[in-house]
Design brief:
InterPro entries: NTF2-like_dom_sf, SnoaL-like
Order of helices and strands: HEEHEEEEE
Number of strands: 7
Largest sheet: 7 strands, mixed
Strand content: over 45%
Number of helices: 2
Protein name: SnoaL-like domain-containing protein
Shape: globular
Number of domains: 1
Organism: Acidisarcina polymorpha
Radius of gyration: 16 Å
CATH class: Alpha Beta
Length: about 120
């Protein structure tokens, strides 16, 4: 959580409801993605993933800023969990930033999903 804590403002919020995720604090998002030790997170079904981000479009206004960053993300399902798929998604992060004494932090992040496609992986041999 250390990296999340230095990325988000202390009261930072997220809205990942477009992907079936949480709407609330960034710590709630981390729990939804990673799990909490007693429950699995939403990413636990994947063995690998890569998110490719565009350059952000930023509007700066004094000590606040807004940004939109498009993304393409690919996820590899775990074969051992009978989840032998690639899941590809495209969308954007809509961020509100605030300047703090420690530097710029994300005040809020909203996920927008343009599309998402699960692709079955063919069995070889």
């Amino acid at each position: 959580m250390e990296q999340w804590d230095i990325t988000f403002a202390k009261d930072g919020t997220v809205d990942y409801s477009a992907a079936g995720g949480t709407k609330g604090s960034y710590r709630d998002l981390a729990k939804w993605m990673r799990g909490d030790g007693s429950t699995s997170g939403s990413m636990s079904g994947f063995s690998n993933w890569q998110h490719m981000l565009s350059l952000p479009i930023v509007t700066l206004t004094g000590d606040s800023a807004q940004a939109r960053t498009d993304f393409f993300a690919t996820h590899r399902g775990k074969k051992e969990n009978d989840f032998n798929v690639h899941y590809n998604a495209s969308g954007a992060f809509h961020d509100e930033f605030v300047r703090t004494p420690e530097g710029w932090r994300i005040q809020s992040r909203r996920l927008e999903v343009y599309f998402g496609d699960p692709l079955q992986i063919a069995k070889m041999g």
